[in-house]
Design goal:
Helix content of chain A: 25-40%
Oligomer: heterodimer
Largest sheet of chain A: 8 strands, mixed
Number of strands of chain A: 12
Shape of chain B: globular
Strand content of chain A: 15-25%
Strand content of chain B: under 5%
Order of helices and strands of chain B: HHHHHHHEEHHHHH
CATH topology of chain B: MetI-like fold
Structural class of chain B: mainly alpha
Largest interface: A-B, 31 and 25 residues
CATH architecture of chain A: 3-Layer(aba) Sandwich
Number of domains of chain A: 1
Distance between the termini of chain A: 39 Å
Radius of gyration of chain A: 20 Å
Number of helices of chain B: 12
CATH architecture of chain B: Orthogonal Bundle
CATH superfamily of chain B: MetI-like
Helix content of chain B: over 70%
CATH class of chain B: Mainly Alpha
Order of helices and strands of chain A: EEEHEEHEHHHHHEHEHEEHHEE
Strand order of the largest sheet of chain B: 1-2
Distance between the termini of chain B: 16 Å
CATH superfamily of chain A: P-loop containing nucleotide triphosphate hydrolases
Chain lengths: 327, 325
């Protein structure tokens, strides 16, 4: 088997709060191949964003990566000091943030912010770096890139800013891009364009993409594989069509049922009862069992992630069978 | 931009007019200069002569009117004491004050910004605690007392630095300056430090607060995610944003530095405007007092305008007069 672009193994990130330890990421493992798009899906507080930050070593105190291994192209990048980590960030693993209004520095011009990203990792003249920045902007569909380079962030629209962020992420041709809900703050039309462009770019350059989102419809059209997170753990993982059409975990089923379906006009949405659990003092056992109709005594001990269908794994004692999802 | 400037100039003019009235009424109310100026043994005739010569027998409004008409021609009256134009007296003393004010602003930035940044970057370190405690002292100790203590320590006990005066000066473009000679610098240092102490504390607190707030921002995390060095994240990405409030506040503080200079100049017998105004108030030399206050008003108006202009340079989101896109 080839070396995956990104391999995360038993990642543990804890938040040491006054109320106790919150295990925001509790033994997360996944791998993404070159050119593959993984959708990391979950509700707010499921640990999906913290997973992204943990990979880059950007978790702020009181959060702390306490265990696990992260490999990029086979090289271990977890546990490095800040200086060594800085050489990975933006070069081998880039990140696109959620809110384009907040991520570009308001007092620095676009060209400054792009050129510095190149020059942080290689010795290259400003002129050459600028040419590359310009090229990258054109690549993500920004008209008049020369003009945009001289603009300040506040002079650009939200969609345009997110394109700048994507172009910046692509600048150093990273092996992996982690995108944390980058289209959530945008209009649907812009969202669709950006999804399409990102997909194209990843295919073209063989970049592995981890797309963190709570929006299943985005993942359905974008990702190759999907990993569903709940309370700091991956509860189901598999090819996107399999997981969405034949979910194994009751939580995944619940997520799918709470998304409006275009074909089912007037049909009732089915929300998941209850709320996402508090992470502090979360006991043993399946974290979803309090909200789950299928829960039994057996759910009080933590189920392992089992491969129940080829390529599709779930962490559930009572997985949904082929017959049960027709309801 | 032009519209902005015009509007601001008009506002400034209104402020100056209102202030002139306030100043004039205020000075009118503080006592009769003739009682101090003229020998108490003088005959009533001589007294009356003096009053008429100085124009003090005229009704208030007429005195004010005369003052305004002359002021518009650049004549702010003659000093009762020195019998010289008040404006000339003040302008002669101004370079000394400005030099002191600028020197203390420079000290405030040179000490305040690095200390504030350090305290903001490592907020829980013992160094930050020392810096913040120091800044509380800088805020709360009265300027005149600190000035006296500086003299006691550095001039009297240690004998390192002179206790007063400007020392040797070098004339540049007709303006005598102290900081160009070593002797002048030694004279300048203590009063500038005394005047700067409060500002240093202010800058430290502003910078620290700005630093702590800025470091929480998404764009700092984003900058780090691009693999930038810590140096670049702090000194380019954070610093530029911290600078915005500092520029604003310090600009406004230039005025107060000049005002506070009154105390420091008196303590260190620094021959600036502050010392001149205190001396003039003591002898009720009205034209000098009025001229000083008017000049200060104009200075404040101009400084505020300059601050707004600088602000737009530091923060690209502020484009004066332009419509936001």
């Amino acid at each position: 088997m080839s070396i995956p672009a990104l391999e995360v193994d038993d990642l543990q990130t804890h938040f040491l709060t006054r109320a106790g330890v919150a295990k925001a990421v509790n033994g997360v493992s996944f791998r993404v191949e070159r050119g593959e798009i993984l959708g990391l899906v979950g509700e707010s507080g499921s640990g999906k964003t913290v997973t992204g930050f943990s990979i880059l070593g950007l978790v702020d105190p009181p959060g702390q990566v306490v265990g696990g291994t992260v490999r990029v192209g086979g090289d271990v990048v977890s546990g490095l000091d800040d200086r060594a980590m800085a050489r990975i960030r933006g070069k081998r693993v880039s990140m696109i943030f959620q809110d384009p209004m907040m991520t570009l520095n308001p007092v620095l011009r676009i060209d400054t912010q792009m050129i510095e990203t190149i020059r942080a990792h290689e010795t290259i003249s400003v002129t050459a770096a600028r040419a590359r920045a310009r090229e990258a902007l054109a690549l993500v569909g920004i008209a008049a890139p020369d003009e945009r380079l001289l603009a300040y962030p506040h002079q650009l629209s939200g969609g345009m800013r997110q394109r700048v962020a994507i172009a910046t992420a692509m600048l150093n041709r990273p092996e992996v891009i982690i995108a944390d809900e980058p289209t959530t703050a945008l209009d649907v039309t812009i969202q669709a364009q950006i999804l399409y462009e990102v997909q194209e770019l990843c295919r073209r350059f063989g970049t592995a993409l981890v797309w963190i989102t709570h929006d299943l419809s985005v993942v359905a059209s974008l990702a190759d594989r999907i990993a569903v997170m709940y309370a700091g753990r991956i509860v189901e993982e598999g090819p996107v069509d399999d997981v969405l059409d034949r979910p194994l975990h009751p939580y995944t089923r619940g997520l799918i049922d709470s998304v409006p379906q275009p074909g089912l006009r007037g049909g009732r949405l089915v929300p998941i009862p209850g709320m996402a659990p508090a992470l502090v003092g979360l006991g043993e056992g399946c974290a979803f069992r309090a909200r789950c109709a299928r829960a039994s005594m057996a759910c009080a001990s933590q189920p392992a992630l089992r491969e129940l269908r080829p390529g599709q794994r779930a962490r559930c004692v009572h997985p949904l069978t082929v017959g049960s999802h027709a309801a | 931009m032009t519209l902005f400037l015009l509007r601001r100039l008009l506002q400034g003019a209104i402020v100056v007019v209102v202030m002139s009235l306030v100043v004039f009424i205020g000075v009118y109310a503080i006592g009769n200069p003739v009682d101090i100026l003229i020998n108490p043994d003088a005959t009533p005739e001589i007294k009356q002569q003096a009053i008429e010569r100085l124009g003090l027998d005229r009704p208030f409004l007429e005195q004010y009117g005369t003052f305004v008409v002359r002021a518009l021609q650049g004549d702010l009256g003659r000093s009762f004491i020195y019998d010289e134009p008040a404006l000339k007296l003040i302008l002669q003393a101004m370079p000394a004050t400005l030099e002191l004010a600028i020197a203390s602003m420079v000290l405030a930035l040179v000490f305040g910004i690095p200390l504030g940044m350090a305290a903001g970057y490592w907020p829980d370190s013992w160094g930050a605690n020392v810096i913040m405690t120091g800044s509380i002292l800088g805020f709360s100790l009265p300027t005149f007392w600190v000035g006296l203590m500086l003299i006691v320590l550095f001039s009297v006990e240690l004998g390192w630095l002179p206790s007063g005066g400007r020392g040797e000066t070098v004339v540049v473009f007709g303006v005598p300056l102290s900081f160009l000679t070593w002797n002048g610098l030694t004279h300048l240092f203590l009063p500038a430090l005394n005047l700067a102490l409060f500002k240093i504390s202010l800058v430290i607190r502003l910078t620290r607060a700005g630093m702590r707030e800025t470091l929480q921002q998404d764009y700092i995390k984003y900058a780090r995610s691009k693999g930038l060095s810590r140096h670049r994240v702090v000194f380019v990405h954070a610093f530029r944003n911290i600078l915005i409030p500092i520029v604003t506040v310090l600009g406004l503080e230039i005025g107060s530095v000049i005002a506070f200079a009154v105390v420091t100049e008196t303590v260190f017998s620094w021959p600036g405007m502050g010392k001149l105004i205190i001396d003039s108030i003591n002898v009720l030399d009205r034209p000098v007092v009025v001229a000083y206050l008017m000049l200060t008003v104009v200075m404040f108006v101009v400084i505020n305008l300059l601050v707004d202009l600088t602000y737009s340079l530091v923060d690209p989101r502020v484009r004066l007069g332009g419509r936001p896109r």
